[in-house]
């Protein structure tokens, strides 16, 4: 559990019998957390379904409002980091007492939702998704009622014909290679003027192959697209600079945060932990595999 001196929106409150209220991040290492699939496959015509699990990793039973679709928000990002689609904001409300459910130690509550209606214009390709879930309060809640915000938790999505028939290893391989392979396909459908007016180098590159006399320029553009993948030391230094500029500690929390049960992650996983919680830092430092 994490106790933060400065209150923040993403804090969650876990109150156990005989203990005071203590905010918790709901992150990867939190005792009570949201888990989502690392890899997801969707057919272009849908359904675009996701399975979310609110998991109780403590050694005690807790009580929580039963998982609800309206309390979740899913955002899909294109490879360039732009938002492809987003569901509505998660509901923040107080439920009636009969919505409270018991969640035993080591168990989870599952929620399946289909984002097809909000992402109806999603085209074939690869995406990254983020999920936020709100554990809302309830009237007449018991002392050990859990409430707060989970996430964002992330995963990757392949939208393609036959994607749902792929084995896990095949799906991973497709997601690892698809973005680079997809660039020429995007360029082929782009207007001839797209490359001329694009302000960014990686935006201009896809437009270049449209002109038949410039195939040689396409290869350097693709290489340049991958070139910013800096060394781990450079990425770590960039993240630390961004955190310092925002007045945050090494884990992206306000300075002065006290971790009663140890830091959220070890140093090995710290950079990805920060990146999963801060899209701005992730993009500023060009952290790969997101």
Structure description:
By secondary structure, the chain is α+β, with helices and mostly antiparallel strands. The protein has three domains: 31-159, Intracellular proteinase inhibitor BsuPI (Immunoglobulin-like); 167-226, no CATH class; 232-284, no CATH class. It has helices spanning 168-189, 194-197, 201-207, 215-226, 232-245, 267-277, 279-284, and strands at 12-14, 22-24, 32-35, 39-42, 49-56, 62-65, 72-77, 83-86, 100-103, 108-114, 125-135, 145-159. Helix 3 runs antiparallel to helix 4 (215-226). The radius of gyration is 21 Å and the shape is globular. The protein starts with 11 loop residues before the first strand and ends in a 6-residue tail after the last helix.
List low-confidence stretches. Answer: 1-25, 178-226
- CATH homology group of the largest domain: Intracellular proteinase inhibitor BsuPI
How much of the sequence is in beta strands? 25-35%
Query: Using DSSP, what is the number of strands?
Result: 12
Largest sheet: 9 strands, mixed
The CATH topology name of the largest domain reads Immunoglobulin-like
Briefly note the structural class of the backbone: alpha+beta
What is the terminal separation in angstroms?
Answer: 26 Å
The whole-angstrom Rg is: 21 Å
**The level-1 CATH class of the largest domain:** Mainly Beta
Number of domains: 3
Number of helices: 7
Mean pLDDT: 74
Shape: globular
Helix-strand string = EEEEEEEEEEEEHHHHHHH
Q: Provide the helix percentage.
A: 25-40%
């Amino acid at each position: 559990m994490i106790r933060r001196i400065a209150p923040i929106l993403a804090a969650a409150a876990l109150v156990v019998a005989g203990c005071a209220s203590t905010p918790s991040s709901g992150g990867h290492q939190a005792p009570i957390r949201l888990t989502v699939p690392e890899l997801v496959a969707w057919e272009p015509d849908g359904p675009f379904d996701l399975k979310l699990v609110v998991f109780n990793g403590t050694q005690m039973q807790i009580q929580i409002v039963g998982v609800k679709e309206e309390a979740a928000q899913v955002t899909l990002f294109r490879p360039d980091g732009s938002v492809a689609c987003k569901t509505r904001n998660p509901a923040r409300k107080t439920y009636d007492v009969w919505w409270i459910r018991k969640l035993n130690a080591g168990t989870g509550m599952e929620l399946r939702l289909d984002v097809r209606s909000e992402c109806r214009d999603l085209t074939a390709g690869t995406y990254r998704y983020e999920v936020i879930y709100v554990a809302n309060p309830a009237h007449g809640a018991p002392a050990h009622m859990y409430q707060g915000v989970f996430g964002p938790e992330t995963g990757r999505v392949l939208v393609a014909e036959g994607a749902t028939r792929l084995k896990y290893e095949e799906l991973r391989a497709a997601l690892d290679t698809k973005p680079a392979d997809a660039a020429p396909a995007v360029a082929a459908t782009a207007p001839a003027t797209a490359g001329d007016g694009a302000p960014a180098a990686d935006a201009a590159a896809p437009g270049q192959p449209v002109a038949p006399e410039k195939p040689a320029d396409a290869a350097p553009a693709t290489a340049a697209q991958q070139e910013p993948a800096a060394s781990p030391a450079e990425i770590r230094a960039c993240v630390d600079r961004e955190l310092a500029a925002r007045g945050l500690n090494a884990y992206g929390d306000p300075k002065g945060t006290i971790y009663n049960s140890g830091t959220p992650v070890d140093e090995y996983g710290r950079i990805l932990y920060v990146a999963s919680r801060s899209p701005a830092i992730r993009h500023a430092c060009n952290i790969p595999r997101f």
